[in-house]
# Entry
Amino acid sequence: MRTRSKVLLGIGGGLLLLSMLITGVNILLSPAKKVLVVTMSQDAVQADRVALKDACGDLAGVVVVKDIGNPSSSVQGRFAVRFDIGKATPGQEIALEKCINEHGSKVRGFLSEGDN
# Structure
């Protein structure tokens, strides 16, 4: 092989290794993508969803996930409420679950999605 070919292969291999290293570091250092999904009961309306967001969304380590899609309250009232808990400690997650349980009859259940 010529020197020029060796240099080009070396540069290409170096760029490949560098991109793999940067991607790996970004994955390892990024915060967890964890969401607590609260399923509302069948008779829950948008006002119940808003009350749950207002009561539990201000807790430490908890961020309310913005609703997407049709903003109509008659449509959004049927969907689950989502809380981003990627940066929450176990104690903060417990406080959120206690807050959700205080809304008893309007909450059907909840589960976490994402990194565990």
Remarks:
- The chain is about 45% helix and 20% strand.
- The two ends are 50 Å apart (CA to CA).
- The mean pLDDT is 86.
- The beta strands are 34-40, 63-64, 81-84, 107-114.
